[in-house]
Amino acid sequence: MFRRSYQSDFGLIGPFVLSGKSCVSLHVYAAYLTSIYTFFVIFIEVIIMYAALNDADKLIYAIEVDRIEQFRCPKCLKEVKLIQKNDTSYFQHLNKKFNEINERDIHKCGKDILVRDFSELGYLDIKQEAFLSEIKQRPDIMLADNLVLEYQCAIIKTSKLKERIEGYNKLGIKSVWILGGSYLNNKILKKHLKFLSYDNNWGFYLIMLDSDKKVYQLFYQIRYVGLFNKIIYNKIEFRTDGIRELLKFKTEFKSYPPIRVDGYQINKIRNIRGVKVDKLKESFFNKHEKTVEEFLSSKILHCQKPIYSNHYWRIVCGEKPRNLEQPLLYKGMN
């Protein structure tokens, strides 16, 4: 469709100007070419963006990103996602999956399901959107004076999430966060990690509610594996009318066999460039008289806790571990 439209427009303007038979002036044709050029520039900028603003509002190149955080477009300030491939890294605008109207409907439906399910569990004095004047917050659902549920459908900044959780903590209120809407997914992504909780039975976990299908998804025993913090987990689903089964679900910790670093991962590290990465590699070589790649090629790796923002290979090579902002987890869980 794009090619046909372009040829049609060019056929009406271009040939006439070149033949000298057109009543269309040269400056109109120049404006036409400028518009075509502008279209391609915008098209390329949307598809490929090599720098974006980080949480500190500083411009950072994709190849230099070494921690998990949110990024925004320098022009429109909308959220963008980091794409990391074997030979390149760049940012890309997010596709808006849910508009505001749909999100409100999903949120209301989900809250209705939660109220019904927890009423059946014996919570008889449930309040919705109750205003807590001391912290100026309205939890989605207040099950008791010391327990609230938040059904999070809209994208929320980590700083805002932390502020809300700290507000509840100030009043001695435990907050349980269940994800839906824009966060609903069949797998765990980096954007979900800030919502992680910990349970002695489930390990690191989070819960999603698909209000349309009326299904709870429990992701449990969430861990990192490998040099680049690949997220692994176990998953089980429960119908919303089976919430008792969800809360009673017991599991045994599954031990994963250690993984030997392969050539693919070594080549990936070798191709990573950037000021911080180069400095780390140089420092490691000066200290150990061997390259990072030589050192890592003989390593056998075990699973790691999903609490770090920098890649595991960098931690192994001497970089100080940097914790993610995960306000539902206890501090010092290293």
Can you lay out the helices and strands and say which pair or pack?
Elements: H1 2-19, H2 26-47, E1 51-53, E2 59-61, E3 71-72, E4 79-84, E5 89-93, H3 100-120, E6 127-128, E7 141-144, E8 147-152, H4 158-170, E9 174-179, E10 197-199, E11 203-210, E12 215-225, E13 230-239, H5 243-248, E14 259-260, H6 263-271, H7 275-288, H8 292-296, E15 300-301, H9 312-316
Domain Competence protein CoiA nuclease-like: 104-226
Pfam family, one: CoiA_nuc
Keywords: Membrane, Transmembrane, Transmembrane helix
Rg computed from alpha carbons, rounded to a whole number of angstroms? 26 Å
Given the helix and strand composition, which structural class is it? alpha+beta
**Count of helical segments?**
9
- How many distinct beta strands? 15
Shape: globular
Contiguous runs where pLDDT drops below 50 for at least 5 residues: 1-24, 39-46
Number of domains: 3
Distance between the termini: 54 Å
Major sheet attributes: 8 strands, mixed
Strand content: 15-25%
Transmembrane segments: 36-53
Keywords: Membrane, Transmembrane, Transmembrane helix
Pfam families: CoiA_nuc (PF06054)
InterPro entries: CoiA_nuc
Task: Report on the architecture of this protein.
The chain is α+β, with helices and mostly antiparallel strands and 334 residues long. The chain folds into three domains: 2-93, no CATH class; 100-248; 259-316, no CATH class. It has helices at residues 2-19, 26-47, 100-120, 158-170, 243-248, 263-271, 275-288, 292-296, 312-316; strands spanning 51-53, 59-61, 71-72, 79-84, 89-93, 127-128, 141-144, 147-152, 174-179, 197-199, 203-210, 215-225, 230-239, 259-260, 300-301. Strand 11 and strand 12 (215-225) form a beta hairpin. The chain is globular and about 65 Å long. The model is unreliable at 1-24 and 39-46 (pLDDT under 50).
